[in-house]
Amino acid sequence: MDEFYVKKFFRDTSQQRYRLLQNKLMRESKFIKFIKDRGIAVFGAVEGDPSKFCELGWLTNDNNNNQKYLFHPFRLLPVFKGIELCKIRISATSTLNKDSFSQCIDKYINYLPKNDTIGNKVKVFDLIADFAIILEPIYWPKISGLVSYSYPEEKYDEEINQYKVEVLDLVKKLSPELWITYHEQLRIDSAGLDDNSNLYMLLRCSPWAKRERITGQISGSMWLKHIAELIRLAFFDTHNVTWKEEDEAFVQWTPGARTIIYGNERPLDDVLPLRSHIAFEFGLYRGSIVRWYLEGQTEYYAVTNILPSAAQGGVELINLKGMLSQKKSIPLALAENLKEDKQLKRFSFITFDKDVPENVKFIKNQAKIGNIVGYVNCNDPDFEFANFVLQELIDLAIALDKKHKINTDELAKGDWSGIKSGSKFEERYKVLSKRGAGLKGEEWGNILGEYAITNPFINGKERPFITTLHYVLKSRSARYDYHTKVITMNAETFENETITE
Fold first, then answer.
1. Residue 33 half-sphere exposure, CB side, CA atoms within 13 Å?
2. Is there a contact between 59 and 110 (Cβ–Cβ < 8 Å)?
């Protein structure tokens, strides 16, 4: 009965549908080229397999069955299946032995399926193409993102709405049990042409102007998937059935896996949110993936020494001291930036010193209200003494003065006892050094950063600065949405903890 309903509707609405079609019909020569460009080995140039299949009764002529052949692009499907069923499946290298090859061909002919057997199978896919062409005026704009008007928009809207009612009434009469098998076969056939499902999802997110220029078997696979999507959308709207999406063929997805990768278990229902996930999947970063906020000049330049091209790798470095130029308090400016990070699904990393109680209170509050998605590196008491022992700092200060060709005897022999913070260390340095300058800034940061990266451990443990650096780099390949679902930040300790149900 399904075949009867589809064929009758196809005939009865041919004139109306012709006015509403979104894809233009093609003459045979153009249709043959179209198929060849989709990576399918069709025979012919001006004429060929399509008209031959029409003469055999396997393929429908979309020109109202007149002698002049015109074909909708969806007729690619039955032509592809006909060619596949007619293939002689022997190894190309079998021709190396001419005698045995000739005997093989003679025997192989006896096993070829009869034309009627091939034709009956091709006609099924021609019926599927009929149905897809019926659905095309309604669902193609959703797939392509474009609407083609053949006459004034107001009249078009009126006619398409009437046509949609008639089409959905047709779909209600059809069997979901039968058409889900056709949909599954289309997914398998498209994967047989090209099984790069991730690449298809990338193409599906692309503008139609880019997609329609794709050639080769990936394009052939894409067109078959688009045909399948039309059918799936129609049955969902009328029978409320949920079928697998078109990228799913041979791979079995575990529950939740598609959400992790694509942001949704059914990403093709709305491709707009899918785009950011696909961009991430292919490393097509737009802007920064991570913002790393650093409290002072020393920390900032320590990082830039190690990551001189951080921005090119998706890491944006923010010197919190530089925020003073915004004529706002640092906490206010940072709070606004953290909110912006969440809106853009960008990880936030904060490196700050524990020696200022107001800063600790502010960061804890931001963590408590969920404004920090990322990592907090709280240096106790400050950057210098959380990451280096006193003797290392003395040695590095000596190295700095030697670089400037300044006598370092007093630095080496001076009294450094009781020094337990970066500020106190700098005060003593100014007294002992003859350089006449402090330690905060680019040069001191470069020396500390270079030393830390070449000597990553302190007292048998990784320096907190290096740990933070590793987390920053790892976060570039982490999935933001997944992180927010499984990780939370302890507002008291700043530790990232796994969310338990």
1. 6
2. no
